[in-house]
Amino acid sequence: MQTRKKYIFLTFLASWLLLFFFGGDQLRRFAFLSVRKAEARRNWPRWTDRSLLKSFAEPEELQRDGDPSVLSPRERRAAWLSVHRSGRCRMETCFDFSRCERHGFKVFTYPQERGQPVSETYSKILSSIERSRYHTPNPEEACLFILSIDTLDRDHLSGQYVRDVDEKIRGFALWNGGRNHLIFNLYSGTWPSYTGELGFDIGQAMLARASSDTQSFRPGFDVSIPLFSKEHPQRGGNTGWLHQDSVPPKKKYLLVFKGKRYLTGIGSGTRNALHHIHNGQDIISLTTCKHGKDWEKHKDTRCDKDNVDYERFDYQELLHNSTFCIVPRGRRLGSFRFLEALQAACIPVLLSDGWELPFAEVIDWGRAAVVGSERLLLQIPSAVRCIHPERVLAFQQQTQFLWDAYFSSVDKIVHTTLEIIKDRLAPHRSRSRFLWNSLPGGLLVLPDFSTHLGDFPFYYLQHGYSPSQKFTAFIRVVSQAGSLSQPILRLIQAVSGSQYCAQIVVLWSCEKPPPPSGKWPQSSVPLTIVQGSRKLSQRFFPFEAIQTDAVLSLDEDTSLSTSEVDFAFLVWRSFPERIVGFPTLSHFWDPEQGRWGYTSKWTNELSIVLTAAAFYHRYYHSLFTEYLPAGLRELVDGLAACEDILMNVLVAAVTKLPPIKVTQRKQHKEGVAQQMEVEGTAGSRRFSQRQDCLNQLADWFGYMPLVSSRLRLDPVLFKDQVSVLRKKYPSLEK
Amino acid sequence: IMCASAKYNTRGPALIPRMKTKHRIYYITLFSIVLLGLIATGMFQFWPHSIESSSDWTVEKRSVHDVPVVKLPADSPIPERGDLSCRMHTCFDVYRCGFNPKNKIKVYIYSLKKYVDEYGTLVSNTISREYNELLTAISDSEFYTDDVNRACLFVPSIDVLNQNALRIKETAQALAQLSRWDRGTNHLLFNMLPGGPPDYNTALDVPRDRALLAGGGFSTWTYRQGYDVSIPVYSPLSGEVDLPERGPGPRRYFILSSQMALHPEYRVELEALQAENGESVLILDKCTNLSDGVPAVRKRCYKNQVFDYPQVLQESTFCVVLRGARLGQAVLSDVLQAGCVPVIIADSYILPFSEVLDWKRASVVIPEEKMPEMYSILQSIPQRQIEEMQRQARWFWEAYFRSMKAIALATLQIINDRIYPYAAISYEEWNDPPAVKWSSVSNPLFLPLIPPQSQGFTAVVLTYDRVESLFRVITEVSKVPSLSKLLVVWNNQNKNPPEDSLWPKIRVPLKVVRTAENKLSNRFFPYDEIETEAVLAIDDDIIMLTSDELQFGYEVWREFPDRLVGYPGRLHLWDHEMNKWKYESEWTNEVSMVLTGAAFYHKYFNYLYTYKMPGDIKNWVDAHMNCEDIAMNFLVANVTGKSVIKVTPRKKFKCPECTAIDGLSLDQTHMVERSECINKFASVFGTMPLKVVEHRADPVLYKDDFPEKLKSFPNIGSL
């Protein structure tokens, strides 16, 4: 082995020496020449008098860019209103902002009229709006109006086509020339040209349409939405198909397509060429001529063979097993394929020139899809082959994030549309592009809470922030006793003993007034009393008094020691987006009853941390109160002990991660366990109400967001056989 | 196919069985190289030496006044007006750009000419200082080509930066007669001051057919999204005045307006704001009684007070940028340079480079109608965010406004990104200031996934010659339910691994990989044989971990797939006396590292370790035969920003016939060496990425009073 190496080395040396002796001179000359040649590139000349050149504009001219003769700003804006109409509509000219000032962003849907057929899809859209927190039944309050007429399918050859829309619209007293109206549309135009024609006058209304083309799209006014099928779920929606980050991120096939080949007509240019890239190995591009009634009329020589190949592969299987999926235009620019590929984590390779991509106003598609050019189809294979594996892995993950955040249900598509429009109303209180394109997504980030990334629990690492060093203890008091009980006094003492405690806020939810300030224990941290009602949901109201990122939520009868609090807070700082706490529950699917159940018994798993003693980020108070619809909060107020489940469900829906349990001392745990397991009517009522709550929440979200964990975080030396003196938290082991 | 990307070696460090054929290939290639070399040399010897004398390559030394004059006949063709429906796929010829391995467009610049009309009158100034700078920048960039036939984009040397400085019809004629004009296809024009009185169009009025326009001052009606590029109006003051960056934070004034030629209507509204909010608002105007010789453009006045411009901009937190006759204003550049957050009040204005820059991070856009509410709107912005916006504003100026070069290169990059979208620059690269790029992480495994348990993990055992101990490890590990494959990395080149029949019989596949060299980094190679995401790295002497402990470790990894999840934990400490980092293996309350003698991690980190390890760390580790685990801890923490997870209680890691990790750790020189590693790595990474935590993961019911047989992982922590 070693000798071999020597040989190689020697031969190398000898041959180079030979080369140098015989041809060195020429080689050197050649090298010299090539350097000279590079220098000799005809660059832009360095003019000898370049320093004497005049500036493109005098400073005076630049700074005095005003001309008194021009229209006054007010006149100009008035003039715009008449010039920039319909096809040239912008928010400034066709939208009445003043309607949104008094009541904020409220959306009104026209009442359904009798005998008015509405497709399944459109009624899903309408009910999504009605489920949204922006819905109002009162047109006086409304900022945005949605028609009850089904405008989704405007292909007059289609069965869903609604006739005489113009006439119907004219009958609406609220129409107002279409101002502040939003019209949803999935299909427009018809054979053979499939233009954007809608078949009625939209006036100054905004369009939320699929297959928008960049030329007729009115930027900042219209919204491009994805094409989705009528089976698309109302809420929840299926999760993406990526369950693991495989490395290398390669699948069986590199690039696939399976679909119709148009023999004639619009879109046939691309579809007709797709078979060229098929190589039968890692690139599978299958087309069939079979579509429409008279396909055999246009049949060409490829058709028969192609049709046979076409049947050999299963579309779903290709989706599952390919790294990239070609998403070409159909007759229209958008296709179902786009969402299918996105869900399947098959990176879409878009071949649809001029398509205004769905929600492109806010979504950065360059991170999740390859935007190809129809004209460069043949370069696609080499282009995708050259994409770095790291980038492929990032693409795959981004498809899943986008699918889950904005597309997996009709609710999400509609709510995203509404949020985009809402963001336009107050540009200074809107989401930055970064927020829309990183986890957990724009819908879950409320710009009304803050516009600063550091105020949210999600972006610490990406932006190099860290959560605040202190926490607020937030104690809810409900007991009817007029004076302060022993447990709460002990609790205040224990909590205020923590070096990380910044303040204590007491939510006084009793009918009797709180004791005067003199009766409260003296502690080193400020104590604030907030008067509250008996509503359970109020516990998660975003009180102004809470000033730190971390909230330690407590019940008055919770018993905690200072070291427990200290340790849990340090753990929370490592997981600021999760709930970190002590007593836990776990949920499970009960196949016999066909419903969700939960248990508070000791199990090897956990998925809910009780908010009787838990740390979480204060942003979740805002999400709870402002993001969740009022209906859910009413549900919580009606049931005993459902609010903490809702909080856990909400946080799990946002983070997709389980909560974290930390070490607790024994006595405390028994106390809670006893409390939970109370036999008798009160206990079992509580149990069944919680169970109901869990099932209603799963129904509202459309899936069960809770995630289970099998671990608990303990101090590093917990119960290790080492001197107690070495341990930082010895008291936790008692 | 030529890819720009470095192809990963998917096979592994030259493995023994493939050695022989490889040698043959070496010989053959070697000899062919020598042969070819000799032939080439010979040919050169007898080649006519004509190449050298073809021309002399002296650099042109000419004056702008000497450029050739072109006379435009009155009836020479005029291009069509700009086509508002143009988009890349309709008006741009991508075939000219082609697929190339570097993913860079080629830009050609027409040579400079002086255009005159029939009567010999100049059509425009030949070239302005700024346009010359811009063309020089393009010419010096990677985009440039001097070969008109290979070009994808053409930049005319006709200067149209300022519409007021040219004659529209004649300039259009000049454009039309360019050699490759072809209706303006793939031609790029730069314009900063469009329109003229009285209606001040928001795009260049020169008819330009299909040419792309990089314009300052587009409105949403004239901007062809995805086709045109919106650019800043360059402020020549940037070159003249040096405003050093000022730290973020509150400044003397809250709102400042420095523009001189505001429409009276705006001025009235601004003055109303000032009246309402007092001294925190400063509305400046031109100075009326300046002595001669003082340039009016460098002074601003409020009543009798005189302020230096643009220095005064640094005194304010927010600076108003109102539209004038045009939408684009040079003052925006000055404001950004001063690190003042621009408050942009110009309805329908397309902000510079808005296709890639996230202006919400650097500016506040307020609709004209909402001007009276400006103060309260700005007041509602959190202080921390204002500070970030100040930094961001300054960064935008430095990167994209500072010089004509910056403007030119950003424009070309945007067009380049459209043509090669799969190689486009990311949002972060465009928008994050260097300080953020440094302090932030972008986790390559950012999606919160809990990998399916069914996948299992692959155990990778690095071994040299401790066969007996190795076999015991194999037997122990094979008891773990989720183990799906066992890979033995045989690092001993002088000894063959035992025969197949001697290996323990286990229920999962067992593969032996032989390495070419005894290197520690072989442990972290992304072997194709590893088919699971999860890798358990385990030393050949770790026999004390129970099956429950290993299975639990895997479960914990599933919940934290982007972290190192390991058993023995270690800590780094700052040694105040020595002023450097110190390695600590004592019983501490904190951990910041786990030893990879027994740790789970994602296979992705094997790629990172093998191909992306910064600096010379990899070689350093192989040369010292130590610290590969510390290097891995650094790498993972640096890329994810997260801490390690130590699982299960501490055990005595002892093995009868060998010096185990703990045994070794006690050795003094070993400790010194490990400390040295930490200091070395911290200096290579330029930071200390390790995160210190006080927690470890145990099963939910660990040490609880609960029947052991009902616990999922009863056998934890036994010695």
From TrEMBL, chain A:
InterPro entries: Exostosin, Exostosin_GT47, GT64_dom, Nucleotide-diphossugar_trans. One of its GO terms (biological process) is heparan sulfate proteoglycan biosynthetic process. It comes from Catharus fuscescens. Residues 104-384 form the Exostosin GT47 domain. Belongs to the glycosyltransferase 47 family. The gene is Ext1c. It holds the Pfam family Exostosin_GT47. This is EXT1C protein. One of its GO terms (cellular component) is endoplasmic reticulum membrane. Residues 476-718 form the Glycosyl transferase domain. It is a single-pass type II membrane protein. GO terms for molecular function: glycosyltransferase activity. Its main location: endoplasmic reticulum. Keywords: Disulfide bond, Endoplasmic reticulum, Glycoprotein, Glycosyltransferase, Membrane, Signal-anchor, Transferase, Transmembrane, Transmembrane helix. Pathway: Protein modification; protein glycosylation. It is found in: Endoplasmic reticulum membrane.
Automatic annotation (TrEMBL), chain B:
Residues 457-702 form the Glycosyl transferase domain. The keyword Manganese applies. The keyword Metal-binding applies. Pfam families: Exostosin_GT47, Glyco_transf_64. One of its GO terms (molecular function) is metal ion binding. GO terms for cellular component: endoplasmic reticulum membrane; Golgi apparatus. Residues 102-381 form the Exostosin GT47 domain. It is a single-pass type II membrane protein. Keywords: Disulfide bond, Endoplasmic reticulum, Glycoprotein, Glycosyltransferase, Golgi apparatus, Manganese, Membrane, Metal-binding, Signal-anchor, Transferase, Transmembrane, Transmembrane helix. Its EC number is 2.4.1.224. Pathway: Protein modification; protein glycosylation. Its cofactor is Mn(2+). The chain crosses the membrane at residues 25-47. InterPro entries: Exostosin, Exostosin_GT47, GT64_dom, Nucleotide-diphossugar_trans. Its main location: endoplasmic reticulum. It catalyses: 3-O-{[(1->4)-beta-D-GlcA-(1->4)-alpha-D-GlcNAc](n)-(1->4)-beta-D-GlcA-(1->3)-beta-D-Gal-(1->3)-beta-D-Gal-(1->4)-beta-D-Xyl}-L-seryl-[protein] + UDP-N-acetyl-alpha-D-glucosamine = 3-O-{alpha-D-GlcNAc-[(1->4)-beta-D-GlcA-(1->4)-alpha-D-GlcNAc](n)-(1->4)-beta-D-GlcA-(1->3)-beta-D-Gal-(1->3)-beta-D-Gal-(1->4)-beta-D-Xyl}-L-seryl-[protein] + UDP + H(+). Glycosyltransferase forming with EXT1 the heterodimeric heparan sulfate polymerase which catalyzes the elongation of the heparan sulfate glycan backbone. Glycan backbone extension consists in the alternating transfer of (1->4)-beta-D-GlcA and (1->4)-alpha-D-GlcNAc residues from their respective UDP-sugar donors. Belongs to the glycosyltransferase 47 family. Part of the heparan sulfate polymerase, a dimeric complex composed of EXT1 and EXT2. Could also form homooligomeric complexes. Interacts with NDST1. Interacts with GALNT5. This is Exostosin-2. It comes from Catharus fuscescens. The gene is Ext2.
